[in-house]
What does this fold into?
Amino acid sequence: MSHAKALKELKKRREKALQMGGPEKLAKRREQDVLNARERIDYLADPGSFTESGLLARSNRAEAREKTPADGKVTGFCRIDGRSVAIASNDFTVLGASSAVTNQKKFRHIKEVATKRGMPLVFIGESTGARMPDRMGASGRAIIGQDPYEYRRLRETPWAAAQLGDCYGSSTWYACMSDFVVMRKGATMAVASSRVTSLAINQPIDREELGGWKLLTGTSGLVDLATDTDEEALDAVKTFLSYLPGHHNEPPPVRPVPEDSKTTARDILSFMPEERTRVYDMRKIVVALADAGSTFELKARYGKAVVTSLIRLDGHPVGVIANNPMFKGGAIDADACNKATAFMVLCDSFNIPLVMLVDVPGFLVGIDGERKGAPGRIINWMNALSLMTVPKITVIVRKSYGQAYLNMGGGRNSDVTAVWPTADLGFMDVELGVNVVFGINRDDTPREFDKRVAELARDSEAWDLAELYETQDVIDPRETRDWLITMLDVHRQRLTGGVGEHLLRAWPTSLV
It folds into this structure.
């Protein structure tokens, strides 16, 4: 074959592959205001930086070869904010982006390259699941399970997933293995489609109830964030990656500090009422402490008694776990335990220091919590906290009671601790304690009750903890941002170049 003829054939095959599922299917997506697989990559990647791997791949089955350009999954490498990233985008216009022999080889290749060469990995999900008839019968068994390490996650590099349509099968599996999952409202994520599920259980299933954004962000917690559009979801992926290193053996990237970052911190007292019985939104305190515009909250609709946010302090990425009295008075339930533990795994795996802001009355007790295995969740949290090797810094702003005192970094569970003058370090709320210990209440014996309250409240103030050197400092709340920046610098991991031991890197994904 002459050079001219070979190049003409190459051009023809490339053009056919780039047509994807054809003009009609692509036009339909434009009418729905939904990006196609290649447009999603173009939006996410730095302009002109995408290099495709497997453009000319097709199905290995003769009858499907001509209708499977790129075999329904677009894979390759690009740059996002100047950094190399591996990427896989499901092309729903080609057999519903169903998983089959060839495209799974493509997936495996980019995963291996990302891990071996140290770059983040992004999955853009939209898939009907396994391709039939490829997976049917005994021959189908010979296709799946050929990679014994396909579902092993050691968190060598950050993974992010954007669920932007119907996501079943592998799109779900890889999202559940990822460090961050964002979902467009209207998309779904489940083991199988509502149609398949309805047939399996012989009853009608609503697709939103099966795997819609409200369920996944609020009930199961498998999705971190829901957005209104594809573009917003992809922007969230960019934002998430901006806090993370390219791989686990380097520190996170540092950004310039906005000029107005100290302003809100000076007004921090305005966000917490003087009356100890009044609730407030701890998220406002998190924002006040962070560099301006740097707060990125994860799982905001799940386990709401705990706030988990990525922020920057003096340009450096930091993870924050904070109790939030706005929800259940800040009492920690099983879901909040799951959320906090998963966040600690993320921070420790990628060298992000942890700050804990404490106002916790304890754990939420009751039958529902026991049914959800709350004791096990509480100890999972403590196990994860003890395995963390990144710097851990605790600030107790108000209540810190019972076992939750330890879970939130009390005792020797942090590298350094400070308390605000408003801190209350009792075992439980003093009025409840009087009822439990002495069996009396204010209505029956008000004078005796108040006497016992004063007795139990003794030795539980900030000064008492400082006298025992169980806290390293009592600080003016308005000094908190500066104190945190100083302590993060003091506890920087100089001997290892900002890299921890990653003892949590094999912690199961989606199971905390």
